[in-house]
């Protein structure tokens, strides 16, 4: 690896902690970002010459802070400027570093930075864009590409989000345990939103949007490094790893959805799965279950099944039932019905989803799943009606195409039924 | 004479490599390994998963305590390692507990899942 590539990786890995610490000093996002940029420029000049510092993050914080103070002095012209040497000669920065931060400082800093990005006044899309820009350091162009909008539109979205936050004020007091737990929960939800922006992309959009999944995984790893004993953060990271591991198998060559049970499991990512499974095991040891852990446990059961028919649907049914209690939602019941259809048959599954019609009537997947149960029960006319509704409500071409496969099969079966003699031959 | 070569680096930095950079590094490492395989000098090679997936069993009492995260004590040194093929973290922890009984006193076992394992080099 070249020096520059190493420095690049070091800068991007240090970014969340460094920007977070600088935000604590300057209490202003733009100043913190600029200070970090300055520090990066100096790193690019200094590190190839003097070798990388032992603690790049602390170096960047120290240098960034000095650079920003210098900038303030230059603009206010009140104090004499320090000689450039005093700032750029950094040989003994590390030895003299008074601000050696320990893990607990970083912890609240990074949490604050992420928490600022998921301010409740910001709509979800702005939260995600802001976190990717400020915490992950993606360029506006990269984020715009992932959101399939123009760079100008994304620039505007981020500027607007920053404006709102500046007005709302950043919470600087060190959080108490309850406050810290609330912040962590809000941040976890935001990280999962980032993930789902990437994960829910259709086949054709995958190449542009999958980096969002990688970024969310990186953020969750960062959180878990800082909050090592939080089972829900373990669950969140595990859930994302186990879902993202299926990435290569989720769409066929034409970009169409491949159902979990039809996926080529040899194409599942063999690096992400063991990490996800280890994290699920770690989390469950705490005996403090939460929604991310339960969802991760469901994903783990799929990951552990070498073939679709080896899936432990009984256990998945139980886990969905647990999730229904934790987070009552018709979508979870709909998902649970799939497990029920495997363990107790299509009629039991259909009985489970029929009462959801009022709430999920406009949800394409509801009609798709219901149609599949009707089909299995031989109620073809009703199945066709359900599939037609599903296609009408589909959000993407891939979703519609997926339902169309069911319809095509239905038509073929009907055609075969009309010509029994030909079928017998 | 057998030697182990233990690899240390900053995992945040390595984790920030792009897939292309990571793949390129693995290709360069494989070239080194292939050479060693030809000379009959290479034993098992493993790449470990991030420390966020690690659990540590801390000895020093009758019932060792389990801590989330990697081994973080700087006063103790790495003295050996085992690789076990088990179904769950709990099973690995049980084995570590048995080891702790057989070798009581202070010390720790970090239980870290393995990402890649090549019994005889990356072949």
Structural overview:
- The complex is a heterodimer of chains A (425) and B (123).
- Chain A is mainly alpha-helical and 425 residues long.
- Among the domains of chain A are: 1-77, Rna Polymerase Sigma Factor, Chain: A (Orthogonal Bundle), CATH 1.10.1740; 361-425, Methane Monooxygenase Hydroxylase, Chain G, domain 1 (Up-down Bundle).
- Chain A has 21 helices and no strands.
- In chain A, helix 11 packs antiparallel against helix 12 (272-284) and helix 15 packs antiparallel against helix 16 (346-353).
- The model of chain A is unreliable at 83-92, 94-99 and 421-425 (pLDDT under 50).
- By secondary structure, chain B is α+β, with helices and mostly antiparallel strands.
- Chain B has a single domain (2-113), classed as Dimeric alpha+beta barrel (Alpha-Beta Plaits).
- Chain B is built from 3 helices and 5 strands; from the N terminus they run H-H-E-E-E-H-E-E.
- Chain B has helices spanning 11-15, 19-38, 89-102, and strands at residues 45-48, 55-58, 65-68, 108-111, 114-118.
- Chain B has a 3-stranded antiparallel β-sheet, with helices on one face.
- In chain B, strand 2 (55-58) and strand 3 (65-68) form a beta hairpin.
- The longest helix of chain B has 20 residues, at 19-38.
- Classes of the chains: A mainly alpha (425), B alpha+beta (123).
- At the A-B interface, helix 1, helix 10 and helix 12 of A face helix 1, helix 2, strand 3 and strand 5 of B.
């Amino acid at each position: 690896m070249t020096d520059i590539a190493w420095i690049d990786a070091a800068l991007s890995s240090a970014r969340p902690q460094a920007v977070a610490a600088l935000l604590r000093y300057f209490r202003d996002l733009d100043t913190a970002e600029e200070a970090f940029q300055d520090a990066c420029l100096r790193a690019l000049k200094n590190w190839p010459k003097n070798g990388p510092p032992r603690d790049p993050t602390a170096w960047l914080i120290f240098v960034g802070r000095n650079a920003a103070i210098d900038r303030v002095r230059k603009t206010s012209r009140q104090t004499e400027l320090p000689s450039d040497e005093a700032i750029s000669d950094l040989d003994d920065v590390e030895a003299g570093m008074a601000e050696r931060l320990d893990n607990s400082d970083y912890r609240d800093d990074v949490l604050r930075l992420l928490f600022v990005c998921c301010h409740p006044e910001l709509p979800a899309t702005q939260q995600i864009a802001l976190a990717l820009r400020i915490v992950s350091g993606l360029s506006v162009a990269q984020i715009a590409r992932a959101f399939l909008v123009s760079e100008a539109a994304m620039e505007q979205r981020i500027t607007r989000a920053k404006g709102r936050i500046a007005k709302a004020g950043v919470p600087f007091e060190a959080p108490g345990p309850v406050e810290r737990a609330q912040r962590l929960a809000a941040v976890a939800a935001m990280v999962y939103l980032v993930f789902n922006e990437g994960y829910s992309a259709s086949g054709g959009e995958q190449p542009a949007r999958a980096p969002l999944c990688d970024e969310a995984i990186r953020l969750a790893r960062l959180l878990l490094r800082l909050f090592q004993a939080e089972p829900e953060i373990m669950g969140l990271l595990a859930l994302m790893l186990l879902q993202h591991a299926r990435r290569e198998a989720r769409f066929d060559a034409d970009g169409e959805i491949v159902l979990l049970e039809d996926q080529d499991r040899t194409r599942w990512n063999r690096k992400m799965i063991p990490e996800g499974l280890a994290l699920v095991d770690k989390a469950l040891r705490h005996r403090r279950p939460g929604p991310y852990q339960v969802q991760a446990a469901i994903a783990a059961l799929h990951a552990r099944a070498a073939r679709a028919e080896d899936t432990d649907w009984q256990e998945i049914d139980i886990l969905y039932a647990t999730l229904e209690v934790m987070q009552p939602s018709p979508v979870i019941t709909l998902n649970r019905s799939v497990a029920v259809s495997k363990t107790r048959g299509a009629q039991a599954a259909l009985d489970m989803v029929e009462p959801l019609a009022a709430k999920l009537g406009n949800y394409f997947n509801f009609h798709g799943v219901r149609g599949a149960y009707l089909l299995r029960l031989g109620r073809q006319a009703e199945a066709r009606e359900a599939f037609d509704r599903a296609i009408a409500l589909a959000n993407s071409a891939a979703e519609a195409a997926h339902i169309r496969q069911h319809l095509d099969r239905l038509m073929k079966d009907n055609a075969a039924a009309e010509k029994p003699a030909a079928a017998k031959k | 004479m057998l030697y182990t070569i233990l690899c240390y680096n900053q995992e945040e930095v390595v984790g920030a490599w792009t897939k292309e950079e990571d793949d390129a590094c693995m290709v360069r490492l494989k070239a080194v390994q292939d050479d060693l395989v030809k000379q009959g000098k290479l034993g098992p090679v493993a790449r470990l998963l991030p420390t966020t997936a690690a659990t540590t069993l801390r000895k020093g009492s009758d019932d060792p305590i389990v801590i989330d995260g990697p081994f973080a004590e700087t006063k103790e040194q790495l003295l050996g390692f085992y690789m076990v093929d088990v179904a769950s973290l709990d099973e690995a922890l049980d084995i570590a507990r048995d080891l702790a009984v057989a070798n009581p006193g202070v010390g720790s076992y970090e239980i870290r899942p393995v990402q890649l394992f090549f019994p005889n080099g990356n072949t």
